[in-house]
Prior knowledge:
The structure holds 2 protein chains of 2 kinds. Chain A is of the alpha/beta class. Chain A contains 14 helices and 8 strands. Chain A has an 8-stranded mixed β-sheet, with helices on both faces. Chain A is elongated. The two termini of chain B are 33 Å apart. In chain B, helix 2 (65-77) crosses helix 3, helix 2 packs across helix 5 and helix 6 runs parallel beside helix 8. A 7-stranded parallel β-sheet of chain B has the order 3-2-4-1-5-6-7, sandwiched between helices. Classes of the chains: A alpha/beta, B alpha/beta.
Amino acid sequence: MKNFLEKSFDQQKILICCGSGGVGKTSISCAIALAAAIEHKKRVLVLTIDPARRLAQALGFDQFSQSIQTVIMNPQDSFDAAMLAEQKTFDDLILRLSPSRDVAHAIFQNSIYQHVSSGLSGIHEYMAAVKLHELYESNRYDLIILDTPPMRKALDFLQAPQRVADFFDAKIFHWFLKPYFLAGKTGLKFLFNSSSLVLKLIERFSGMEVLQALHSFFVNFGEIEEFYQDLKERKLNCLGFIINQVLPQMSNEFEKDIPEDLRIQYMGILEYLEKFNLRALYQKKNIAFFVKKTGIRNSILYIPELSHDIVDLQRLQDMSIFLRTL
Amino acid sequence: MKETNTKLVFVGGKGGVGKTTVACALALSYSKNNKKTLLVELESPSTVSQYISISHNLEHLVLNPETSLKEYVLRVVKLGLIYHVVFENRFFKIFLNATPGLKELILLGHLWYLVNENDFDTLIVDLPASGHAHSFLNVPRIVKKFIKTGPLSHITTKVEEMLEHSKLYFVTIPQSLAVTETLEFIEKAEKSHLSPPSLIYLNRYLAWPVPPVIQSASKMHEESIFSDFKVQLKNLGIQSNIENVLGLIKNQCKQSVEYEQILKKQSLSPVRTLPFIFSRNWGSSEIEHIVTCL
Lengths: 326, 294
């Protein structure tokens, strides 16, 4: 019997992971990819937006790159990973549009372009949407997992492509961008066309499932309500939640079994044990409250606080075990 | 330029490290020391109201580019109608959203106004999460590269001067990702000739527990306290989740020390630790506790 996540591997083509900063989203996205590849034999791609180098090294490459790299777990199982680089994705677009490589390189040298291409608000997400669309259409993968940048308003990243599309559509775009792009009229036309492409993609997102990764302890319930509201307004479906860094709990009377002399001796450690246990208890209450408030019970997965950072594939595999039905 | 004694402090860091709580604690600390303090947030919705309350010495403001721009234009132009016609149309909104650096420049301009045209002693600014801290602080430098004259250039120069006199406190926690991002930020700042952080706060630092009271003359290594305790428990046949939790605690203590060393070694900025606070709900008493550790 599959859990909601495993079921989604068969039903969805794109899984989007959202969440605020520091919850372990990117690691979890990779763990999901691993689970789908090893356990369910899917052809998977995980697309990260803001990955740490450390994680790349854990997967076996020096760093994430915008070209697809394969994570090999064993001779039979692998999944692909790529990052949407800040500047490079836009550079690619320019390369495609420019009448010649010389013109393209002249553009690249231009310091204004350098600033625009990395700073154009939302361009990152826009290119992500374009790239995602390409990959989706290519049918190279059964499942694409999109990791999103950490945001207070988790779904902001979806708004960005629309903003950029608006920008490209508006006539104001002409006088603003013209001095930056020497690409000529055909180039500009392409940019206009690509914006409608993005809009189509966003429409497709409406059928898509969104996965929310949460920090288990300091979860701000105001944020959850906001997130739900946001989802409703965009007519998106929330597939479920993954609550990370769940603390192990001991019985409230764990000290009873420990003889008094030992307790006095190791007072320092005991103090910490008590505090951690209390914390675990509060966390449990918070989670219960959250489950009650959202009415979701069967669409939550819990990942315990792991002693070690994800430093290699083995640790990633350890994490992915918690994504499976036991 | 008008001389100002207002201190400007930026608080930066990755998401989830406790940046906002540190910013609140700093603001509270200054206000208690008789400094008229303003705590500024650059993201809405505001999150500080649960941590601190406004007092005669402590005020709070949430900035956003649209309202900042509106205030500025109205101050200069003084005609609401013109503002409405020019700035409140759909195209300008789009332009504002997509133009690189414009929003940041407007916010920085507003900060400049708060620093120079008000009587605050201190301004504490809670920056948005990491990656943006660098691009935010770097905007004036970039804009100056291609806008060399005119009113925008003038604003940019003033803002640059303001930033040069400001301080940046960077908050991080003893975790691989947070520390890596901190070091990357420092590297990026160096490359763009921004000043390094004046101070790095290592938050959620868990000190080794008090060592056991034992007759042995030799000083025990901190880690072996844990393994000793585990052994004793095993001998008594105690089985529960205790071992699991012990492992987590030990790891957290170990990482606290390790990352403190790494930060001290690899950055020129001083590093100050802030303790791990076990608390059910975060509120003003927790913030007051942090104030004592600043």
